[in-house]
Amino acid sequence: MTGDDLARLLEEDAVTLIDVRSPAEYSGEEGYPCDPVQGHIEGAVNLPLDELMYDVDAAIEQLDTSRPIVVYCHSGQRSEIAAARLRAAGLDAENYPASWHEWSRRPVQPST
């Protein structure tokens, strides 16, 4: 999944987008200095990885599972773990491996 793929899916409202970073990263209060902006991708649901791993069933109840799920974090590592956990639970989930590190550099900035 590329950033362009994700942008198209978001434009078509054809995906459930999950940000598995911490609430502080999601809100833009914290982040990595290598990123030009902090915040999250517009339309993303914040579901921190530790919450997802602790109780996947409770996490799934918070999601719209009628559409494919795309998961992101900062650099794709946490989101790959989350996507694998969601797939193991029977959901159609995919990692956006370039994650916020790439998205924060897009010309049209997401919600910050």
Task: Please tally the β strands and state the result.
Answer: 4
Helical content, roughly? 25-40%
CATH architecture: 3-Layer(aba) Sandwich
User: How many domains make up the coordinates?
Assistant: 1
Indicate the structural class.
Answer: alpha/beta
The fraction of residues in strands falls at 5-15%
The SSE order reads HEHEHHEHEH
Q: Extract low-pLDDT stretches.
A: none
What name does the CATH topology carry? Oxidized Rhodanese, domain 1
Distance between the termini: 22 Å
Shape: globular
What does the main sheet amount to?
4 strands, parallel
Which key phrases capture this entry?
single chain, 112 residues, alpha/beta, Oxidized Rhodanese, domain 1, four-stranded parallel beta sheet, 6 helices, 4 strands, 38% helix, globular
Question: Can you characterise this structure?
Answer:
This protein has a single domain (3-103), classed as Oxidized Rhodanese, domain 1. Strands 2-1-3-4 form a 4-stranded parallel beta sheet, covered by helices on one side. It is globular. The model has no long low-confidence stretch (mean pLDDT 94). The protein is built from 6 helices and 4 strands. It has helices at residues 3-11, 23-27, 49-54, 56-61, 77-88, 99-103; strands at 16-19, 45-46, 69-72, 93-95. With 112 residues, the protein is of the alpha/beta class. 38% of the residues lie in helices and 12% in strands.
Summary?
By secondary structure, the protein is an alpha/beta fold.
Secondary structure: elements and pairs:
Blueprint: H1 3-11, E1 16-19, H2 23-27, E2 45-46, H3 49-54, H4 56-61, E3 69-72, H5 77-88, E4 93-95, H6 99-103
Parallel strand pairs: 1-2, 1-3, 3-4
